[in-house]
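Let's practice the habit of predicting before peeking. Look at the sequence and jot down your guess about where helices and strands might fall. Then scroll down.
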Amino acid sequence: MRPFLLILLIAVFFDMSVHAQTSYGKNQRAGHYLSTRQIRIYYEEYGKGEPLIFLHGNGGSIADFKNNIPYFAAHYHVIAIDSRSHGQSKDNGDSLSFEMMADDFNALLDSLHLDSCMVIGWSDGGIDGLLLAMRHPDKVKKLAITGANLWPDTTALTPYVFEQIQKNSAGLRKKNQTQEVKTALKISDLDLKEPHIMAGQLQAVRCPTLVIGGDHDVIPVLHTVLIASSIQQSYLWIIPHAGHSTPVFEKDLFNLTVWEFFKKPYHRIEGPDTFR
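Done guessing? Here is the structure:
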């Protein structure tokens, strides 16, 4: 075997081994803390290039993107964040809102001297991404969201899921109110009581946006369609035979499609182009 080919194969194997062994969300080599807005927000950095942030869902953490970070780190400077009260971003305060989270992410971007970035948001992270683009429009260059909702009722969440959230919050209220239980209740109540975004407010999202949902998502398809139709520069992608966890169970297709969306200029499809 030629020496340069052997070296290349060793390098590829080593890179694959590093990714396989990486403990996303608990990687001391990639992890950092920022003290801001009365909390310490935890984030991890991977790769080089244009910045891209990952925003996880309710009760989740950076680890939820273990199927996606390695792919995008090959193309971007990935910044994966534990939102406040989640993962290693501790917050013992008595309030929690999506607006607070969006402003946290803006503060983090400011601290890293980043004027703008790509954003991938899943579930609550999709809501965070929308609000980041609405409240700090210059910070979001392109936005890809999957499984987001605009308000908390059975038109935006399936009745089964909304009932489960109600039961979870009710059960937590009956427990001894330790700090751990208080945090869990705060997180559960977030999805029970928020967000409160009117479809018309999405006109404030100025960046190209890819709106994603599974055809059997916990977010009804019509609600996902509403989100896409309310954003001026949007594409809609409903994945067949898929639920809420598109970055996990549809990871290969998800990664490729989002990457292609990021790298290609937005093209409004209208007039004769609609016959393509």
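How did you do? The two ends are 49 Å apart (CA to CA).
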